[in-house]
Amino acid sequence: MKTTFQKLTVFFTAVALPWGCSSNDNPAQPQQGLVEVMIVSNTFVPAEVTITSGNSVRWTNEDDVQMENDFHTVDSGTAENPTNIFTFTFSEKDATAQHTFNSAGTFPYYCRRHGETGKVIVQ
Ligand SMILES: [Cu+2]
After folding, report:
1. Which residues of 79-114 are buried (b: 16+ CB within 10 A; e: fewer)?
2. Is 20 helix (H, G, I), strand (E, B) or coil?
3. Per-residue pLDDT tens for 83-114?
4. What angle is formed at CA 111 by the lines to CA 122 and CA 83, rounded to 5 degrees?
5. In what order do the strands lie in the sheet with 117-122?
6. Are 114 and 42 in contact (CB under 8 A)?
7. What is the rounded average pLDDT for all residues in the chain?
8. How far, in Å, is the centroid of ligand 1 from the Cα of 115?
9. Cα–Cα distance between 57 and 70 in angstroms, integer?
């Protein structure tokens, strides 16, 4: 009886492991409320966020652009095809801007100064 129980324990541990891994890593799960994106070293972090329609993304510039007389932008669309839904310029550290996404879709954006890109997926 004890031997059977031990075999069952091993069996369930083995099958439960892949499920545990997948539930810890689910990038498609939409975020609610105000979702934060940082601009760090000319990179959007995270570069892709998934939110539910009606929620907002807030970008914060963490780069010390003021000292270098530089800036970042968050412009909707791509450098080849700007969509002019939103355009923000960040000319100092800790500057923020936010946009509320009220319709589903995939919204790429980019910095027209350096070319870094990001994406908001609205579900
Ligand atoms: Cu930039």
Report:
1. eeeeeeebbbebeeeebebbbebeeeeebbbbbeee
2. helix
3. 999 999 999 999 999 999 999 999 999 999 99
4. 55
5. 48-51, 117-122, 105-110, 72-77, 82-90
6. yes
7. 85
8. 6
9. 23
Whether the CB-CB separation of 35 and 98 falls below 8 Å is answered with no
Q: What is the CA radius of gyration of the chain?
A: 21
99 contacts 62 by C-beta, under 8 angstroms:
no
Distance 76 CA to ligand 1 centre (A): 13
> Which of 12-16, 26-30, 93-97 has maximum average pLDDT?
93-97
* Residue at token pair 């994106």: 37
| Distance from residue 13's CA to the centre of ligand 1 (Å) | 47
